[in-house]
Design the sequence.
DNA sequence: TTTTATGCATAAGAAATTTATGTATGTTTG
DNA sequence: CAAACATACATAAATTTCTTATGCATAAAA
């Protein structure tokens, strides 16, 4: 993650969200997908991505499946049951954060 | 900051935004204002707030004015010129972040 | 008189990054 | 054909930003 400043804490939500619609993805693929979906606004660095994936796996949210393609090793990640549940809650959390920030940035003048 | 998980990096933006409409505020006042504006969703802890204020001051974005009220000392902060400029850019950054996250969470299916 | 509110501050530790490397294979390009 | 770029993973050191835990001080409320 670099360039357009990301708020720390959002990376795992991004990963989980992508995996919730793709069934399985590998690390490099995730960096490319994010780059294309955000038109280059967001660039996930490997230094952030791989530790994040390892942590999600260690927490039991992702499971791994190795695969050799074109003589190159790929590590495919997919959501576990627990991961699917956690994804929902992370997305709700993001939603709340966005609404809260909106309320702070554009406060409704109190009536009366 | 505790409770409703905040994305790290947003605190200084919140502080700057509040000061951009209030002329001057002191630390404790900021914690209370945030609590009331977010209906308790966001609670800024002193451990996060004071170091953040000190950093903004050190960076030349805020200036300080001490004042004694009811035998209690208050440290009022206000935006400097540089702080006003930086506020605009921080708000744009937040706006871009929100749009980017929205694009990731609700991607438009590519036409064709 | 103990808790709660007001008001500031710092220090230790944790979490999530950035930046800098390292390894390896395959393709493109000058 | 050598150098650069793309693909693919990984880790380590340093930095940023926060949480948690204290500490000090005044004043009001219970």
Sequence:
């Amino acid at each position: 993650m670099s360039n357009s400043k990301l708020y720390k804490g959002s990376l795992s939500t991004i990963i989980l969200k992508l995996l919730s619609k793709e069934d399985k993805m590998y690390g490099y693929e995730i960096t490319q997908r994010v780059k294309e979906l955000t038109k280059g606004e967001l660039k996930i660095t490997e230094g952030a991505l791989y530790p994040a994936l390892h942590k999600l796996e260690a927490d039991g949210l992702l499971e791994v499946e190795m695969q050799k393609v074109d003589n190159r090793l790929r590590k495919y990640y997919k959501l576990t049951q627990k991961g699917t549940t956690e994804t929902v809650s992370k997305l709700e959390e993001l939603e709340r954060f966005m609404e809260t920030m909106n309320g702070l940035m554009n406060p409704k003048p109190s009536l009366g």
Observations:
- The helical segments of chain B are 11-22, 27-37, 46-58, 81-105.
- Residues 1-2, 6, 8-9, 11-12, 45, 47-48, 51-52, 70-73 of chain B lie near DNA strand D (CB under 10 Å from a C1').
- The two ends of chain B are 46 Å apart (CA to CA).
